[in-house]
Prior knowledge:
- This protein is an alpha+beta fold.
- The protein has helices at 15-21, 43-53, 59-75, 131-137, 151-160, 193-208, 212-224, and strands at 3-6, 23-25, 81-85, 91-97, 102-103, 113-125, 143-145.
- It has one domain.
- Helix 2 packs across helix 3 (59-75).
- The chain starts with a strand and ends in a 19-residue tail after the last helix.
Amino acid sequence: MPLYLVRAGSKGEFEDNFLQDNRVYLRWGGAFPNRNIAKMADYEQIKTAMIAQNPDEQVRKLINGAGQINAFVHTMQIGDWIVLPLKRKAAIAVGEITSAYTFDPRAEEDFRHFRNVRWLNTSIPRNVFDKDLLFSFGAFMTVCRITRNDAENRVKRLAANNWQASANILGDVARTVGGDTGQAHEDSAPLDLEELARDQLSELIRRKFKGIAMERLVEGILKAQGFVTCAHLKKNAIKGTRV
């Protein structure tokens, strides 16, 4: 089954709604708040409506958006898996699509377009995933299909291994989809540099600061924020770090 990336707002402001409602909501710029997009038969109709509705926007941006909306409404299928990178903690949620696209005109405007989801795990540490997968998950898009490096099968192998990291074999060479195809893939998207930088910084801290060195790092951060700290623990006195 295909694997899709979805996002719950640029700052993760809708994460609780996604996880608690067992749904993924279409979060592309408030497009079509009062229209059932399923009545637009395909990508071309969505693109035409987008351009007509937003005459002052750049056409390239609207084409990109139409591809993402088409993926959410028409291309995704029941049984497909999704990954939701979380912004409020260093974790990723993975779920399975369990319904067709639904439009609810009675809902609040931000939550009218959705699909139901069965969440398989809502708090998988980011460091469980290999760097090339995190790179794909960093695509700066609201909705897109992840196609690089056999990502679909590797995420499913992680699930079968109870979300425990193990030696992974890289899959196929990246598959590039360009142009006005109506398909939203991670290859056509810019990267979320903030998210990738956070991953690299976390990895560096884990490698460079262990034991008492981690304690001193935490102490330095707390002092910089105006806190008063106690004396260092003796080396090897206890395992772990107390804050």
